Each structure stands twice: as C-alpha cells, then as structure tokens.
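Z., the sequence and structure:
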Amino acid sequence: MPITESERTYLKNKHKGGWNNEKGNRYEGYYAIYQIALLINTYYGNLDAVHLTSHVPDAFVDDLLISKPSCRVYHQLKDVKDLSWGYSNVKNDFKRQIDISKEQNEQFKLKLVNSKRDFSNIPAEISEFTVLEYFPSYNTLDKLYWEYPEFKRAIENIAVPGRDNNDELMAIAITILGVWNSIDTPVSLKDIVDKVRKNNSYDSLKIYPSIELSDETKEVLDRLNVVYYVNGEILYWSFGNFSGKVIWTSEKEHLLIKSSPLNIVELIPLLS
C-alpha cells in the first residue's frame, strides 16, 4: 500500500523530532563513526559500492540506511531507558517498513540499535527481517573509545600498522564524525573517506589495498636505516629530520634497485 498523506505527516514529524534531539544526534553520530569504520575495513577496495543516508525520506525505519551491493540495511537508533517495542510506535514502524520494502522488491534488513543490553526479543511478526544490535551510550567520544572495545577495534582495523597509537586513532574517529555531521546524504563511502583524508591529510587511514615492496627494495631501505611503511600506492619514509612520500611504481623500484644507493644523500632523490 502506498504511503498515505497522514503517514507522510507522521514521517515529517518523526524526521523533525530526530534532528532536534541533541542526545539522539550524538548517539547517531557515534554509531555512524562505528559503522563507517566497519564498512571501510570491509569494502576498502570497493568504497564506491556502499552508500549511506541519514534520516531517510519516506522511510519508517529512518535513522540510517546503509546500501550495500547485496542488501539495504535500515537502522532505527534508540537511546532511552524505557525502550520497548511499543515505545513511540517502534513495532508499527518496523511492520510498515517491511511492507514498503517488500512492495519495492528490495533485498533488505531492519536493525534496531539500542543502548539496553537486556532489551526484549523481537516480535514474531517482524522477526524475519529484523535484528537487534547493542551499542552503548556515552556523553563523550573519548569515553566510548576507552570503554567500548568493539569501537576502538573498529578504528584500529582501518589504521595503517605502526600508525595506530591512541592519539592517531582518536583523530581518525573525530575526523570521521566531523565529516559525517557536515556532509549531505545520500553519500558514497568513498566520498566520506576522501573528505576525511582532505580534512586531515590523513596518512594513517588504511583505505586501499597496499602495494608490496620487493625484498630488494626492503633490503636497500633497511640497510640505510630508513623508517618506512606503505599505504595504498604510497611509500612513506623518514630518516632523522628528513621525511617524504612517493607514489611507488615498478619504474621507481627498478631505478632504486639498479642505483643501489650507498647513503641517504644518494637515496633521497630516488624517493622523490
């Protein structure tokens, strides 16, 4: 059944209430960081394949929609102590969303994200398409990071090995939140990542499959005591007060190995 005019009025008020709830917006923002990190880790070689929408128009389960290649996942987020399936029409909203998604022949799943660990079982009439997810509520991002291991682990998984100290991980989380709060949706995961990198020039974010350095290249760099790591196609290096980065190609590698530099003075031109 198509959405009626009275339902459109209800949805308009529902969306407005979501935007005006400061506590709810904080909870949704922190959850968005978590999901974006999980998605980057899963799709980091195919970021264009995933799109995210917040406060989804004409949806009854509307806080967040994650459109993956094989499935659309609608999220409703509730951070309330007295949550029940009867709270604020939750069950009815899920039932109506199931009807609409079926009519549109979607491959879909509905998710109720809540801050109650002991929340009740899913009603039978919506259980086929509905899952529950616990996500804790904290007043600050710092507390979430330190007290919820799954959140910290999600951020660690998208950081370049060796660039994953707590300060850098928090910087990644803060930057993702800033981008999410400022961006218009729907938006691709790639657009989010590009803005995160642009806002922070963030070299410690792992987003592309990394090139492999040859053993010969590693031998040269190790022999000259160069500190280095690879992120995507970029080789980052440092030696004392000198540092830089270079797009690492087979031609660059061939030249380095052929030149076999004897010292850092001979090496630096080959890494520029």
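The radius of gyration is 23 Å. The beta strands are 51-54, 64-67, 72-78, 108-114, 130-134, 187-188, 227-231, 234-239, 242-247.

Let me know what you think.
H.
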